[in-house]
Structures are given as structure tokens and as C-alpha cells.
Amino acid sequence: MKDFLRNSWKHRAHIVMALPVFLILLFFSYVPMAGLVMAFKSFDYTLGIWKSPWNGIENFKFLLASKSTFLSITKNTLMYYVIFTALGTFLNVVLAIAIDQFLFKKAAKVMQTIMIVPVFISYAAVQFIVYAFISTDTGILNNALGMNLRFYSTPSYWPVILTVVKMWNSVGYGSVLYMSVLSGIDTSLYEAAEIDGANKWQRIWYITLPELIPMITVMLLLSVGNIMRSDTGLFYQVTRNSGVLYSTTQVIDSYVLNAIFKNSNFGFTAATSFFQSIVGLLLMLFANGVVRRLSPDDALF
To answer: In sequence order, what are the residues at sequence separation of 6 or more whose Cβ sits closer than 8 angstroms to the Cβ of residue 96?
Structure first.
């Protein structure tokens, strides 16, 4: 105990610096986990969380009550996760390498700053930008093509529309992580490869990409934990929560949000969050186990 107190006092500056982050994690990530008990209760406002009666797995049964709806929203959630993760990772890496290889470094920094801006724009505002492009009567796209496409009543268009919006919103910011890795690569490796006769593409393939693989692996492993979660703003606001589009736009999170607005069943919400978290945890453990077996150095733990 004395050694612990002595070391704590010795590193008091570091402890003070870490304290805000620790408190944020504690109060916003761990304390709210106590609310998961609502998943197994019939929540009553007048009784509160702890005095509300237990109802076993009834909330989970309510989630699975409509088999066709549950399968549809689960399919959409997984489909968009795969599309966003695969395409997003590819574009993040390509953009990071392109900026890193750009000859005019000052211009590259300006481009990088501009590309980060979309991530700070709320989807509440993005929905108006999207509407300006694809509105049936006044949309820029319809006027430019001389067509009359009804985007807000045709579900088949929306996987593409949502993918474009998501990539526009996230790719610029996502590439920053990979650029930080690129900035740390020893330039002597490129110089040695150039002396050996390697052209630019060969240097990228044999030096740059292998250096990025650990970061790509870590980001993919972390994303697997959120495989059952989606960006609610993207699917609820950009689509304007149009019921006609639900077959291709409704995911688990937007389904839960609609359920809250309709019946305020917080026990159902907690059950859904619990289900998403358990599935995400199991998949992340499985994915990390596979990575640890194939490449131990790249595993999270």
C-alpha cells in the first residue's frame, strides 16, 4: 500500500491529467450499464427502475415478436455494416496514401482540413443537403439529368444514397488515423527501395501497405463490436423516417427509436441494447481470436 501511495504521488501530474477521462468513462460508459436491468423488467415510471416488477425475457420476446420485421432490420443492419466498413476502410487508406504522396504538402494540409469538415455537420442539416439533390420537383440531380426520379418513394435507390452520404461524411476524418501511421514510417525504407529500383507503386505495395495493416486490423476489430449498431441520424433523419423506404433503410437502432416514440417502452429499448452489446462482444472476441491465431502481434489482446 505504501508503494502504491508513493508511486501515485510520484506520478500525480499524470493522474490529474487522466482523471477527467477516467470520470467520463465511469459516469458515461460504466454507471449507465446498471440500467440494463430494465431489459428484464416491466418499467413503471411511478416505481422507478429498481422497484419496477420483473418480467423475465418478455422484452426480448417483444423484439422477436414480428419475425419478418426482425429479420429485415437485422439484415439491413448487417448489410450496411459490411458495405460501410469495407468501402470506408478502402477509401480511408487510399485517401491517406494519396495525400501522403501529394507533392504540394501545404495544399495537402488544406485538402485534409476541408475533408474533415463534413464529420462536424449534423445529420439534421445533412438531410436538407440530400433533399436539395434528390427532391423530385426541385432536386439538382433530377434537373441536371432531365428526369423525374422519385427517390423518397423508391426503396431500391437508398442503399446507394446512404452509402454515398456516409462516405462523404466519414472518409475524410477516417483517413487521418492512417495518415498518422504514414507519417511515422521510416523514410530510409523508401530511399533504400528507390535505390534498388522500386517505382512509386512498388514502394506503396511493399512498404506503405504492410505498415498500415496493423492499424487496419485494429480498426476492423474495434468496428466488429458495433456490428449490430448503426448511425441513427443517417437512417432516421436523412431518410426522413419514410415508412415507404423501411424495407431498405430501417435498421435496429432506427426501429428502436420509432418504438420509443410510439409507446415509450424503455424495457424494450434496454433489451435491444443488451442484445446488440452481447452480439457485438461475442463477435469481437471471435474476430480477435482469429487474428490472434493468424497474426498474434496484430490482436487486441
So the answer is: 175, 176, 178, 179, 182, 212
The model's pLDDT over 115-139, given as tens digits with 9 standing for 90+, comes to 888 888 889 899 999 999 998 888 8
Q: Which residues contact 37 (CB under 8 A, 6 or more apart)?
A: 49, 50, 270
Q: Return d(Cα 165, Cα 136) in angstroms, integer.
A: 18
Nearest by Cα to 212 from 185, 188, 173? 185
Q: Which three cell numbers stand for residue 29?
A: 460508459
Q: Collect all residues with Cβ–Cβ distance below 8 Å to 142 and sequence separation of at least 6.
A: 134, 135, 136, 148, 149
Counting Cβ atoms within 10 Å, is residue 258 exposed (0-12), middle (13-18) or buried (19+)?
middle
| Separation CA 93–CA 268 (nearest Å) | 39
Q: Which three cell numbers stand for residue 274?
A: 443488451
Q: Tell me which of 67 and 189 has the higher pLDDT.
A: 189
The pTM of this model reads 0.85
Give me the residue label for grid cell 437508398: 158
Say which range, 157-161, 226-230, 251-255, has the weakest mean pLDDT: 226-230
Interaxial angle between packed helices 158-182 and 105-116, expressed in degrees from 0 to 180 and rounded to the nearest 10: 140
CB 215 within 8 A of CB 177: yes
Instruction: Residue 63: name the closest of 247, 290, 228, 233 by CA.
Output: 228
Q: How far is CA 300 from the centre of its chain?
A: 18
Query: Which H or E run contains 130?
Result: helix 123-134
